[in-house]
Structures are given as structure tokens and as C-alpha cells.
């Protein structure tokens, strides 16, 4: 009888416990999304050396754009530069500023070709009258650079004489009177004056005049100089030039 009472009591206790548990609210448990991150601290990592790495060949596919950041400085020293020979008639154009340094004071120049005569654009000429006959200059002389005189009978072939300055002096002129001088062409008949100048004599009886021709007076022959009174001096200056 006692044994039955213990069993009944134990069954009654389990019933009360079940009733108590059923009175609590129920909750659904869901796992958190993603994989949780767990920090790992690795110490004393070893050094790894990789040797005998193979070469890798890369082949371009499509267009490549390569950009350089910044401007690099490049110093180039070029030695044993080759000699460049240009063909005849070749022209070389330079633009911008070209500077040449360390150029030798003397340089040997070789010429391979036929020498050509050099014709000056202008040859300066000074003519003086060495003698007068009846107030006309009959002896026109050319003055060289060293002062020597040679007869001037005509301009050289292919050239004309252009007179730019005419200076003359007459002596034994009555003070206060006028003396004059003219220039005309030797080959013109009758002569036509191309220059006329006049001046009043000074108290010592001298008359001096100087004329400058801006455009010049061309002569293919010899200029004829006439000086009034007692001619003392006549000087012609100009240049020879191709017509």
C-alpha cells in the first residue's frame, strides 16, 4: 500500500511540472546571417624567399594607354657622333635659337669645286682732275687705295659710273664775283650739262663748292668737268655698278 502511494505521489509531481512548463511563452530561434569573423593574431611569421622565378611573356590585347606622372630629367652624353654628308643642293632649316659653344678659333676649310669670280655689288671710286685745258679737265685719274693714280678713260665693261659728290675749286676770282662749274657727258654732242653749281668768291679770290647727288648721276662714259676762271681742283666721288 505504501509503495502505491509513492508512485502516485511521483506521478502527481511530474504532472505539476509539465503544467508549469507549458505556461511559459515559446520563442523561435534563428541563426544570424553570414559567417562570424574571428580575429586571428599571427606572430613570428617566417621569411619566404622565392628563387628561380620563371619569365612571363605578356601579349598586348587592344590599345594600351601609358601615362608618365611627373617630368623625368634625362642627361645624355653622345660620343663618337657620325659624320653626315649632304648631297648637293640640300637645304637644312633651323628653327628657334641655336647656340654654338667651344668653337675653335681657327678652322681648316677645304673647297671641292670650281672657283667662281666674285663681283662686288658696288665699287667705290674717287676721280681727280690732273690737268685742265681751257677750263676743261683733260686728264681724269682714278685714286687707288694706296694713293696712286691711274688714267680713267671709261667705266669697265658691263659697269656704269654713278657720281654722288662733286667738289671743285677756282682761284684768281675777283672777290664778290661768281664762279661756276658744270658736268656733262663726254659722248653727248652738243654737250648737255647734268650738273651746275655756282659760288661767290671769298676775299682771297677763291671759290670752293661741294655738291651731293642723292640719287647719283650715272655715266657710261667719262664725265667732262668745266670750271670757270682759273680751275684749281676738281674731285668726283661715286661708285661702279652694273646697270
Question: Please, could you describe this protein's structure?
Answer:
The protein has 243 residues and is mainly beta. The chain has a domain at 123-241: Jelly Rolls (Sandwich). It has 1 helix and 9 strands. A 6-stranded antiparallel beta sheet has the order 3-2-1-9-4-7, with no helix packed on it. The longest helix is centred in the N-terminal third of the chain and has 21 residues, at 2-22. The radius of gyration is 59 Å and the shape is rod-shaped.
List key phrases describing it:
6-stranded antiparallel beta sheet; 243 residues; 1 helix; mainly beta; Jelly Rolls; 33% strand; 3-stranded antiparallel beta sheet
SSE blueprint and pairings:
Layout: H1 2-22, E1 123-133, E2 136-143, E3 149-151, E4 160-171, E5 178-185, E6 193-200, E7 207-219, E8 223-227, E9 230-241
Antiparallel strand pairs: 1-2, 1-9, 2-3, 4-7, 4-9, 5-6, 5-8
Write a concise synopsis of the structure shown.
This protein has one helix spanning 2-22; strands at 123-133, 136-143, 149-151, 160-171, 178-185, 193-200, 207-219, 223-227, 230-241.
Largest sheet: 6 strands, antiparallel
User: Reading side by side through the largest sheet, how are the strands ordered?
Assistant: 3-2-1-9-4-7
CATH class annotation of the domain at 123-241: Mainly Beta
**Average pLDDT metric:** 78
Sheet-strand content, in percent, reads: 25-35%
Structural class: mainly beta
Q: Whole-number radius of gyration?
A: 59 Å
Q: What name does the CATH topology of the domain at 123-241 carry?
A: Jelly Rolls
DSSP E strands, number? 9
Helix content: under 10%
The CATH architecture name of the domain at 123-241 reads Sandwich
Amino acid at each position: 500500500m505504501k509503495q502505491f502511494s509513492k508512485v502516485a505521489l511521483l506521478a502527481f509531481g511530474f504532472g505539476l511540472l509539465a503544467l508549469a512548463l507549458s505556461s511559459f511563452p515559446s520563442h523561435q530561434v534563428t541563426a544570424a546571417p553570414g559567417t562570424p569573423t574571428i580575429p586571428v593574431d599571427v606572430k613570428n611569421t617566417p621569411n619566404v624567399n622565392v628563387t628561380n622565378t620563371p619569365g612571363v611573356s605578356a601579349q598586348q590585347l587592344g590599345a594600351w594607354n601609358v601615362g608618365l606622372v611627373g617630368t623625368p630629367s634625362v642627361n645624355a652624353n653622345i660620343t663618337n657622333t657620325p659624320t653626315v654628308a649632304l648631297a648637293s643642293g640640300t637645304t637644312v632649316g633651323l628653327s628657334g635659337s641655336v647656340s654654338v659653344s667651344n668653337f675653335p678659333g681657327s678652322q681648316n676649310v677645304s673647297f671641292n669645286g670650281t672657283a667662281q669670280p666674285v663681283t662686288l655689288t658696288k665699287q667705290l671710286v674717287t676721280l681727280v682732275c690732273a690737268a685742265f685745258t681751257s677750263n676743261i679737265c683733260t686728264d681724269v685719274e682714278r685714286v687707288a687705295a694706296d694713293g696712286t693714280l691711274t688714267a680713267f678713260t671709261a667705266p669697265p665693261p658691263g659697269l656704269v659710273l654713278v657720281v654722288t659728290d662733286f667738289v671743285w675749286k677756282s682761284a684768281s676770282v675777283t672777290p664778290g664775283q661768281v664762279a661756276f662749274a658744270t658736268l656733262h657727258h663726254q659722248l653727248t654732242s652738243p654737250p648737255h650739262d647734268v650738273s651746275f653749281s655756282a659760288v661767290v668768291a671769298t676775299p682771297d679770290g677763291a671759290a670752293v663748292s661741294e655738291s651731293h647727288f642723292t640719287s647719283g648721276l650715272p655715266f657710261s662714259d667719262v664725265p667732262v668737268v668745266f670750271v670757270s676762271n682759273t680751275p684749281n681742283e676738281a674731285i668726283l666721288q661715286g661708285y661702279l655698278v652694273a646697270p
